[in-house]
Write a structure and sequence with these properties.
Elements (H helix, E strand, L loop, with lengths): L1 H16 L2 H4 L2 H61 L1 H72 L2 H17 L6
Amino acid sequence: MLAAWLLLGAGLVFAAEGDGEHHGNPTLWKSLNFVVLAAGFGYLIQKALRPYLASRTESIQREIAEATRLRAEAEARAAETDRRLANLDAEIEELRAEARREMEEEERRLKAESERAIARMQSSAELEIASLTKRARQELKAYAAELALKLAREKIRQRMTPEIAHALVDNFVHSLDRRPRRAD
């Protein structure tokens, strides 16, 4: 800006000092006019461009800071992932060991539960067998008693003659006479 004012001033001084022959040189005046115009446009552009460039610079700096922050976060995540990958074999082995322990525990629990269920079934079966045996014995005794009565009736019928039947009835009647009578 200062340079533009100096050129303008120098051009005016040069024009004022000159004799008439430089006064009519149109190239000099066109050049001087161009320099003044260019300086004015430069000043206006600089005035308008400076805030834009400042805001653009600030925006770029913010984006650089954000990119730096994001890069640091990504590097931290990558480092964490690398650390976890390095420990992955140990974690997998730990998970397998835990799964084996759980399976063994479950196997022991199921085995104990199965043994208790088998013991209950055996106890129940033994009670049922005892109950069925007792009932079968009772049925067998009842059947044997019924069969014995049947056989006894058959034998009595076979041995019973009309004379024996009359004798039994006579004995029964005599035994009734011998009994003491009750007073009514």
